[in-house]
Design goal:
By secondary structure, the protein is an alpha+beta fold. It folds into 2 domains: 144 residues, Putative xylanase like domain (Putative xylanase fold); 136 residues, putative xylanase like fold (Roll), CATH 2.30.260.10. It contains 10 helices and 10 strands. Strands 3, 4, 5, 6, 7, 8, 9 and 10 form an 8-stranded antiparallel β-sheet that branches. A hairpin with a 6-residue loop joins strand 6 and strand 7. It is globular, with a radius of gyration of 18 Å. About 2% of the residues have low confidence.
Length: 286
Amino acid sequence: MKKFLSAALLGVCAWFSACGASNVRFHNEASDTTRINEILIETEAKKFKDAGDRTAFIAQKFIGTPYVAGTLEGSPELVTINLDELDCTTFVDMVLAMSYTVGEGRTSWRDFVYNLERMRYRGGEANGYGSRLHYICDWVVDNIHRGNIEDATRLFPRTNYVTRTIDFMSSNRDKYPALADSSEFEKIKNVEIGYRSHRFPYIKTIDLAGKETKAALRDGDALALVTNMKNLDVTHLGFVIKVNGEPYLLHASSTDGKVELSQRPLADYMKRNRSLIGVRVIRLRE
């Protein structure tokens, strides 16, 4: 363990030596770095033995944070950090990076930034817009490969599979200003080639109401909500929070404009969203 932490620390030092703050775009550097340190230190002091409980604790720190889309967009592509405005993706990836950092026994904002880049970009390195893991299927595959997460969906009592050809971004190029750049467009096209007839597991909405599935879900599980769209896999993200044993969705809601716990249990929330067919369950590895 000590050798691992020493290697990790050397990685952070090397990263900051090569990139430093020039690779990072803060919304408010002073307040963001201070708050990150506070959350990491407070979480570490709790000595959570379970990564899920640790993740759930951090996620709830952001309840009430305003929902704002598109905070990652900007030129050039940098590791963007904005704790004051979140969408469903930035909420989930920043919470997971914080939890991962504490799991390594580290409590500095620099360590968090290092891990955020490792989780947000292909191969752990920001190298232009096309290097960001835009599709959840791509994010899952890349982060599993590097040992950051596991797809726990297969562990559930009722698991199904769906096959999709993922090419929503290239098919809707006009929705993504960065894709006006032909080189970035080709990078996205090349990523999509790897996700033709992509097969992945999910838990059907109807099965989320089952006692076994409810019991198998854990506080702090990251949920990827699977869409019925033909060329996309996931349209929303959040975390499981259990209330008296009943799973609820903690998420950055565009409808209500803030990070909140769903008013209805997860199973009911999913039933009321007809564009969603089920969920994938993602857990941090330690």
